[in-house]
């Protein structure tokens, strides 16, 4: 098989450059972002393209899938699948693969990092030092992490990994999930509001679906309260961002650590002046080690598909 | 003799369980009043501002003298030296030889810290002066901060937050950082704080190694008999031992070189644990991968060369500075002072 004749469409630049370099080496790589008019790429090449490599920013929506009659596989450089029209793929018999498990540790690490950064005001203190303010007086007292109750929305791979880490800080763990998990010792709450009322730190770690859109709404934020902290390492649309912003600005919510926003790369500027929030530009799995492993999995899935072998991490 | 009837009533009252209880409470109230009176006159010298709650409580319960109230420290001490029975110090200003010598009636030094490096323990022992500190209550906060520093350094949390707030995300993604989970963690000093750090790091799948004056029989972690061996065999080196003459500059050029360009140093111990100029040049020259520092050799001075670096996180000695822990530490200081003046066993004596 001359794989260099197989057309693979990459939807947007992805770092590290390793993935693009390898795709270029192995296949006939077409870079979507080089064509300001998408039709310029799609018209001449639509018959060639047998695979799409997308990610959490640009996946494969209905429009793109419809434009690619020879599409056989979508290999996503992400674990989130919300940017892929899975129903359409199923209809067309298009295989979908993703990169589960690899980002679990990084995402969980980031969850804990955000909690510590928010409660102990690490970024604020670092800035305080770099501005030379320590000479004038001590930094303010902050809030202890150990022992605070942690509520997790979604006890999947990432939620479980967060729970395991938080337990080492003696945090009592509770969770909300579509259904109670039989093999866990953590306390289950049958509603998000109940969970929010009974924890001090609420972590969003579920997948984004139509049911979980705005799962964090005004009622949940009120239940979490002025001493509560919200950590979002899921997706921006999990949270009603306008409600979150007003709650933080008005002091109705104690603090927030956010890695995701409703309209990335836009983030609500009203939050920029607050010292009880930490705002990150969707870096959840952005480590060299993990991205390299993810790239290898994307490449491995593509290879398996084109060699008619079992896919490594299929979704559909 | 016939007892007056009121006495018989009182005797019946006292002999019932409720009566005995009331009696006990009355006795405790009397004792409490007497104790308060006793302590009100005890002169307690606070060395520097450290906690407004502690200051208020000391003011309420004792005769509080504040060393920083007076510009002329030497005169202040001369005028008040006879009055002072206790010193409350901390990591900034403790009780050195000079201070102890100037206080002839000093009975106890109650430190608002777990570290004792600012107290002349030898002199205290000589003079029969008791010393207490605040172990345990701050262990969790300091361990939390060590992990917070490691995560913030490796994942560039503060840099990323600044990147977003400065509007840079609109133009490009933030760069890739490096993973924490699974990295080997080496701990210098496996005491209360070192053990608490190890417990947390384990939950991130980090293999743990340590160096201590002696191997700990109950620890399941790999022991290294020298700091250099430990540094050569870990990716994240955490300083968590006490500061003594032996551990001054325990992290020196050789150790930094052994840790190497992919290694990270986390210091939640004391500034003098690390040879600071060597650390700065290693970081600036890229011979060390990064550092998360809560302490420095000459606080609050910090080498400004570090301010330009994105692979360091710099905090202002906030290891135990949470509202809850500050209060717990202050309560322990007060409880130790009270115990001393009431002739009871000290809660957390060092000497």
Topology:
The complex is a heterodimer of chains A (316) and B (351).
Chain A: E1 7-10, H1 18-26, E2 28-31, H2 38-45, E3 49-54, H3 62-66, E4 73-76, H4 86-92, E5 95-97, H5 104-119, H6 122-130, E6 150-153, H7 157-167, E7 173-176, E8 187-188, H8 192-197, E9 201-204, H9 218-224, E10 229-232, H10 241-249, E11 255-258, E12 277-279, H11 288-306
Parallel strand pairs in A: 1-2, 1-3, 3-4, 4-5, 6-7, 6-9, 7-8, 9-10, 10-11, 11-12
Chain B: H1 5-15, H2 17-40, E1 43-46, H3 52-61, E2 63-66, H4 73-80, E3 84-88, H5 97-101, E4 108-110, H6 121-127, E5 130-132, H7 139-154, H8 157-165, E6 185-188, H9 192-202, E7 208-211, E8 222-223, H10 227-232, E9 236-239, H11 253-259, E10 264-267, H12 276-284, E11 290-293, E12 312-314, H13 323-341
Helix pairs in contact in B: 1-2, 3-13, 7-9
Descriptive overview:
The complex is a heterodimer of chains A (316) and B (351). Chain A is of the alpha/beta class and 316 residues long. Chain A has helices at residues 18-26, 38-45, 62-66, 86-92, 104-119, 122-130, 157-167, 192-197, 218-224, 241-249, 288-306; strands spanning 7-10, 28-31, 49-54, 73-76, 95-97, 150-153, 173-176, 187-188, 201-204, 229-232, 255-258, 277-279. In chain A, the strands form two sheets. In chain A, strands 8-7-6-9-10-11-12 form a seven-stranded parallel β-sheet. In chain A, helix 1 runs parallel beside helix 11 (288-306) and helix 5 (104-119) packs across helix 7 (157-167). With 351 residues, chain B is α/β, with parallel strands linked by helices. Chain B folds into two domains: 41-135 and 325-341, Rossmann fold; 139-314, NAD(P)-binding Rossmann-like Domain (Rossmann fold). Helices cover 40% and strands 13% of the residues of chain B. Chain B has 13 helices and twelve strands. In chain B, the strands form two sheets. In chain B, strands 8-7-6-9-10-11-12 form a seven-stranded parallel β-sheet. In chain B, strand 10 (264-267), helix 12 and strand 11 (290-293) form a beta-alpha-beta unit. The radius of gyration of chain B is 26 Å and the shape is elongated. The mean pLDDT of chain B is 93. Chains A and B meet through helix 5, helix 6, helix 7 and helix 11 of A and helix 7, helix 8, helix 9 and helix 13 of B. Chain A: This is Glyoxylate/hydroxypyruvate/pyruvate reductase 2KGR-like isoform X1. Chain A: Keywords: NAD, Oxidoreductase. Chain A: It comes from Coffea arabica (Arabian coffee).
